Amino acid sequence: MFNAQINLNIGSTNVGTAPISSFFSYSYVQQLYPKQEINASASGNITGLVFYTDPSSTIGDSSDWTVYLGHTSKTAFTSGADWIPVAQLTQVYAGSVTKNNNRVEITFTTPFAYNNTDNLVVAAKENSQSIDINNFDEAFHVYPYTPNSTLYYKGDRAVVDPATPPGGIRADYKSSITFSGLTASATPSCPLLLYPLNNTQFVSLSPNIKWVPVSGADSYKISLGTSPGSTDIINQQTVTATDFSPSAVLAPNTNYYLKVAAVSGTAQSSGCTEVVFKTIPPVPLNDACSGALVASAFPYTYTQSDAISATNNTGFINACPDAMNDGTWFKFTGDGSQYTIKITMLAGSAFDPQLDIYSGACNNLACVGTADSGGAATAETMTITTTAGTDYFVNVGSYEETQDMPEDTFTITITKL
């Protein structure tokens, strides 16, 4: 046992494909450990690593390892091909490993000098042809972390060449781990927020704030305000879980400033970064058919920037055979001419709208037509021939007919032909 060591979530009982796969013949895994999470008191030599296994697991046929460490500025893997080049890594171990007391302890012949400035990448390659059949498929304990913190490949064809690794799979977890040789800071590390991230828009008025657990933390303190550094909404409220929802509903269309600190005994993390997020706008004025915006001059164009706050009111609209969400509403009066109604979204939008047109009255809608031919971010268009003096209602909502889904920003254009 080393006197100087940093333990990261070694009490986790989840299992995953890290640091290697015991369920496939060969694997190659890279994991990112941010400087903030390592939270070392100073730079120093990493003299070894410890990984933790499930008690029911075996690794006898998954014990031929090559291990690498390296410095990196990377905080997440951007794709399955986003491997850190092996030329940027240092091989710190090659040989057989064993499981003792549900631990795999690796001691380096030559320590790795960690600069305590960069993030750290831990990479491991498993070279044994055989596999271990474990109760949970994989043997090693992992803990949830920020998206795409781990990149792994596992297969049965051949030992992986880390200079040209095949396409991998990204994961939102990492190995429970001990860094031997480093001394932990006297104060716990600052939690990494999972939600909301900095500059997140359209946050719920009752958000579920989530963060990554900090090893050794007994509790966390939440501060929330409406200006930078302020705590006028929540002032250092103590929670023991790793998520939190304010007891009072937040104001719509408002910037909030959030800080989460970890507490271990009498020590509290300091210098934690404050994030800002903005809540969803108020419910649109044209949320219900009765409040439909009136188009009286053509061409009529309106950008619905607050559609995300639309409600489903009394339920799905099923006047047409293809039912849909109750979205936002528009209205115009026919004069016997043809009219084209077109819905367009912002580039990159995930909104998949349905466009329905009805005649009659809000309490007695008659289907005129439906446009739902495209997928996400695809424009929908419909042309109708109107009857003079007849009111036409346009509903733009999510296409789902059994699940209330949020709408998103769109532009409606009504053109008289």
Structural domains: how many? 3
Runs in which pLDDT lies below 50 for 5 or more consecutive residues are none
CATH class value of the largest domain: Mainly Beta
Helix-strand category: mainly beta
What general form does the structure show? elongated
CATH topology-level fold name of the largest domain: Jelly Rolls
The oligomeric state is single chain
Q: Number of helical runs? A: 1
> Major beta sheet, specifics?
6 strands, antiparallel
Overall pLDDT level: 95
| Cross-sheet strand order for the largest sheet | 6-5-8-3-10-11
Radius of gyration: 28 Å
In the CATH hierarchy, what is the architecture of the largest domain at level 2?
Sandwich
Q: Span from first to last CA?
A: 82 Å
Strand count = 31
Can you give the helix content as a percent range?
Answer: under 10%
Strand content: 35-45%
